[in-house]
Amino acid sequence: MPKLSFSNLLRQEREAKGLSLKAIADQTKISTRFLKAIEEEKLQILPGGVFTTSFVQQYAQFLGVDEDVSITEFIRSTTEARTADIIKEEPLATKEYTLKAASWVAQYRFVFAGILAVLVLAFVSLFLWKYSRGNQESENVSIPQSEMLSSLDATASDAQVKTESSQQGLIPSAMASVTDLGIGQSEANADMELKIASVGLVWLSILADGNEWKGMLAPNQTKQIKASESIRITVGDAGAVALSFNGKYFPTIGQPGEVKHLVFTPEGPDPLL
Questions:
Q1: pTM for the whole thing?
Q2: Burial (CB count within 10 angstroms: exposed 0-12, middle 13-18, buried 19+), residue 223
Q3: What is the CA radius of gyration of the chain?
Q4: What is the mean pLDDT of residues 62-89?
Q5: Domain boundary at 44, 60, 85, which?
Q6: CB 71, CB 57: distance < 8 Å
Q7: What is the pLDDT of residue 68?
């Protein structure tokens, strides 16, 4: 008759005494899970080390099986068998992982190809855009300086003609329809009358007989000032206004963008006019 394995010996002894795993667990304080693992030779479930040896010895002693050599051999052989199983399982797990990775790559290969195509297209588009932009800049640089200056001179001349014609057409009509915006003396006491007509948005500062006014004139707006002693004005854009002093018309008082300071007295306007 073949010799029973140590685990089977323990189980057979327990069954012969009519004991359940729970009854033994209550007495030894070893969980039924660990007792069952010992009988099934699944020592990897146990905590390991001295705990495994201690649990097996307690179980054997409780059942009256006193074979120290058999216990040591049982633990050694069971542990070695489990280690061999783990070594055999590792290549299988690696193979399964490799197969899964290959399957995943095959499944998404079209997605990868699409992303790669988009990146290549974006790179080519960026290269062509920079290349065409560089050609345009080269063409712009190659324009002769004489042609550029001639073009700028022609543009400036056209702008000056349009500005002068605009002033000639708008300012007289604005002077004719002047509205007194309220500064200076009453008409009975005033020796001077100054009208300022704008052809564009312009900033003004006016001091008439001690009365000060600062503000903006909108295009085609006219301001009337009456005074008896002096009128001092500062114009933010000399090219955007025309003046009329005591009936005498001054179509221009300076260049566009020029800040102008003027003084008017009963004897007449600033000699610079």
A1: 0.36
A2: buried
A3: 55
A4: 67
A5: 85
A6: yes
A7: 65
